[in-house]
Amino acid sequence: MEPRTPNRRTFLSLALGVPVGAALAACGTSGPSPAGGGAASAGGGSANATYWYLSTQPQEGIRTASVERFNKANPTAGITPTTFQNDAYKTKIKTALGAGQAPTIIWGWGGGGLRTYVQSNQVDDLTPWLNENPAVKDRLFPSSFGAATIDGKIYALPCEAVQPVVLFYNKKCFEQIGAEPPTSWGDIMALVPKFNEAGIAPFSLGGQSRWTNMMWLEFLFDRVGGPEVFDAVFNAEKDAWSNPAAIDALTKVQDLVKADGFIKGFSSITADSNADQALLYTGKAAMMVHGVWTYGSMALDGGDFVSGGHLGYMNFPPVEGGKGDPSNTVGNPGQYLSIYSKATPEQKEIAKKFFATAVLSDEEVKMWTDTGSVPIVNGADKLLASSKDAEWLQFVYGIASNAKTFAQSWDQALSPTAAEVLLDNISQLFQLSITPEQYAANMNAVIGK
């Protein structure tokens, strides 16, 4: 990996000795939408703080339960929550911040998005508070603070669970064609016609959501050229997207599309509805590249798919001749909670009390492990053995802790402006409406913006 200045290296590629956490997908909208600087009614007091976060089960339920426990313990100064779907949230929070109407507690992914908040003085520096409350910081994985740190200062509290992206597969589908899970890119391409001949889509993909397509490129860029390829983009190096390894990776994903590697009509399938997961657990698709956050919803909605041992999982396989370490993973090395700078002093105190007493409390930690997630609390590995999902949890812990590089999701590592162009161009790439070279040229135009 190329050397970086300390504040830049913490954003994207983290060499891990311990795992770090994240979550991403969402669906559903509920609750009021109060402004961060105003009063709210839920929780019993006029000084209530407000908190926006993503919806989808089981993650939404865990977040909401933590708010409810906090409000019960603080009946006169609680928190009013509002939930949003993934894409809707990104639009809403950007608009709210621009209008001076953001919630007290801002849920996010850290990285480039957080950097734009900091540059606009929209979130508070939490470093002094964390220094005064070392127990809050010390119980969390040290590596999880990377994407929360801007120019040496911490602007968000890491929370929730470690969630890298992995390759899921339906064991029944592989049994049906008498094949083994892929151990290389060549295996993946060889499996495609076999599954298609059997009437099974090789891969499920919720392509309408765009960020689901992105996960494929994140892995292929790494497996072909190593983390240095995207690091150059992140470091705003001129024409970084035209790296030969990048063009190779872009070409490979279009080769997969052209070979009918994805479910027919994938560009009309949404991840927010969990439709892509349903294709996997119903056997309509054999494999799916997705975040480990989907395990809980597949266990919840997929009948005996998970409990019956029909779900398989593995790290993304290497590419023949590629430079990337096979242990590398991608995803979001943390979910993050920031405090809106324009919130009232009373609301900010409520937020800090919530951070100290409710975020990753013992009750919340148990809820994360009960839904098949690894919370980012030091010693979390000791909690896994007794879980009904112990094998899965140990797998996730191993993926994150053994990764030589844990790369943050591109749309979070980049600025919101560059990320939107990125997602649009990835969608066009998967639809075969632009070539790898056109993709590279379009993306080179927004490097550093």
TrEMBL record:
Gene3D superfamilies from the UniProt entry: Periplasmic binding protein-like II
Keywords, ordered alphabetically: Signal
Keyword Magnesium: no
Domain of life where this protein originates: Bacteria
Keyword Signal: yes
Pfam families named in the record: SBP_bac_1 (PF01547)
Signal peptide region: 1-25
Name the record gives this protein: Solute-binding protein
Organism of provenance: Acrocarpospora phusangensis
